[in-house]
Automatic annotation (TrEMBL):
GO biological process, one term: translation
Gene from which this protein is expressed: rpmF
Compositional bias per record (Basic residues), positions renumbered to this chain: 1-20
Statement: the UniProt record of this protein carries the keyword Ribosomal protein: yes
Protein name, entry field: Large ribosomal subunit protein bL32
Coiled coil: none
Presence of the UniProt keyword Ribonucleoprotein in the record: yes
Amino acid sequence: MAVPKKRKSKSKTRTRRSHNMRLTMPGFQECPSCGAMKQSHRACGSCGTYKNEQVLEVIEY
């Protein structure tokens, strides 16, 4: 079995880990009823619809 000849420094290890575990931007799409941007598979925050059904009651201040 292969064994490393030299010890890897902490900075090399952390860099390798951080590149694999970075966050990605969530996918946004346009709401079909009001046109506002919303996350996929979530109810719209501005009009309260999900799959063309009213699921939330939106209160405007």
